[in-house]
Specification:
By secondary structure, the chain is an all-alpha fold. The chain is built from five helices and no strands. The protein has a domain at 4-95. It has helices at residues 4-18, 23-40, 46-56, 61-77, 79-95.
Length: 139
């Protein structure tokens, strides 16, 4: 089974290769992903449609999430597919030099941000913003 943490990891990897990370290794990962999705799509067209949608909008985090969820759902129903998906994910992470502790910061969708935003990983020390958030925030 692919656990929810792996879905988040899968989203990061899918987004990386869809947006062109890794050069030739990323292209090979995408090709092997397409083959893997083809296997999943024999019984369920959701992964195939999601792969196509991500290919059309590679920077769309929502499309990557939809594909990752479709793959995880397929893996939950088919242990052999789950093994192939885990193997693909591990190999792709290694080829792209990604790790389990990678950080993906995204503000998207219908997010409404009212004030400063800090995105990153492993911050130390005090963090201060020099401007207060706007007071005209809807409640």
């Amino acid at each position: 089974m692919v656990d929810p943490v792996s879905v988040a990891l899968l989203v990061g990897v899918l987004t990386s290769i869809a947006t062109g990370a890794g050069g030739e290794a990323g292209k090979q990962a995408w090709t092997s992903l397409a083959a893997l999705v083809g296997k999943a799509s024999r019984r369920d067209s959701a992964p195939d449609a999601s792969l196509t949608a991500l290919e059309m909008a590679p920077a769309d985090h929502g499309q990557a999430t939809t594909l990752a969820t479709a793959l995880a759902d397929r893996a939950e129903k088919d242990e052999a597919f789950a093994v192939e998906l885990r193997t693909w994910l591990t190999n792709t992470q290694h080829a792209l030099h990604l790790s389990d502790d990678q950080t993906t910061n995204i503000i998207g969708g219908r997010a409404q941000v009212y004030g400063p935003v800090l995105q990153g990983r492993d911050f130390t020390g005090p963090i201060r913003f020099s401007t207060p958030p706007p007071s005209n925030r809807p409640d």
